[in-house]
Each structure stands twice: as C-alpha cells, then as structure tokens.
C-alpha cells in the first residue's frame, strides 16, 4: 500500500533543479531556459558564471533566475561552491560554454549529474584549450568532411566523460571557422535542451 510519505518522496524525486554554468553570451542557456519554462518537473534554478560581465547574466535577469558569481580560489581550493549549490537544492549541473575545468570535489558531489556540450565530434578536437573557434579552426585546417556536437558526462579530464549524444553537420570547402560555428550552434540549440530532458526523465 502506498503511503503519503512514499507519494511525497516520488514527487520530490521527480523534480529536478538545474544549475547552468556558463562563461559567455549564454545562447545555449537561453534555449534551455526557454525549453523548460513551462515544465512542471524541471526548473532552471540557478545561473553560475565565472565572469561578472558575461552575457548569460542578462539572460538570467530577464528570466528572474538567481545568479551565482564564482571565484577561482574558492572553486578550485575551497568547497567548489558545493554548499551554495546545496542551499539552492540543485540536483543537476549543465555546462553550457563554461570554460573552467570542473574540480574533482564537485564531480564527486554531483557524480553522473554534470553534463557538458562540446562543439566537435569527440574524442577528436577535445582537451585543454579546445573550445570555440579554436575547435573550428582545427577542424577546417585538417580538412575534415564533417563536424558536430558531443553531449557527455563530465569527469576529471577535459572532454573525456561518457558520451550521451552526438550528431553531425557537413564541413564544406568554403566554410570558415565563423560559418562552421553557426552550423554547430544550430545543432546545439536544436538538441541540447531535448537531450537534457531525456537524461532527466531516464529516456536515454
């Protein structure tokens, strides 16, 4: 027989409170926020950034989402802001253009509950320093015929966690890093929110 307590626990477990970590303009964050705006089980509860001037903070303000500005010393040598995340009852972390490496302490505390999106087909073009146009420049320089996105769990190494989802786009002969970036961004916006929802509803 199901008790009221069990019903309550099921309700709690079905609700996810997400923190989006971002360092830049926040176009992916904006798409994720919009996608889950009317979702009754998945809430974007916090925007976390390491840059006080990041465009994503404006997006947070427009959507009345609390903001946490993090500093390097506490992130890497302190408690990695785990206490602050717990105070906001965060259950899942999404990296959306966040450029700092995630410390082991945070990975351990949110084991298999941190995901990242990378603008290439990992394991190619990943690792330290491989972000943004640096990735697209390398793809074009090596005359690759296709590129794409990889959504993956985060572990202690850059871009090394278990892959969740990949999809591709063509790299044309006349593509520049800028035109390829636009193709990749379209894939990110199209697939990232949907894949987050699938992960959180165990439909993978």
**Proportion of helical residues:** 25-40%
What radius of gyration results from the CA coordinates?
Answer: 18 Å
End-to-end distance, in Å? 30 Å
CATH class of the largest domain: Alpha Beta
Q: How do the strands line up in the largest sheet?
A: 3-2-1-4-5-6-7
CATH architecture of the largest domain: 3-Layer(aba) Sandwich
Low-confidence stretches: 1-13
User: What oligomeric state do the depicted chains represent?
Assistant: single chain
The chain-level mean pLDDT equals: 92
Number of domains: 2
* Count of β-strands: 7
Alpha-beta content class: alpha/beta
Q: Helix and strand succession?
A: HEHEHEHHEHEHEEH
Count the DSSP helices.
8
Shape verdict? globular
Q: Could you characterize the architecture of this molecule?
A:
The protein folds into two domains: 111 residues, 3-Layer(aba) Sandwich (Rossmann fold), CATH 3.40.50; 88 residues, Formyl transferase, N-terminal domain (Rossmann fold). It contains eight helices and seven strands. The chain is globular, with a radius of gyration of 18 Å. A seven-stranded mixed β-sheet has the order 3-2-1-4-5-6-7, covered by helices on one side. The protein starts with a helix and ends with a helix. By secondary structure, it is of the alpha/beta class.
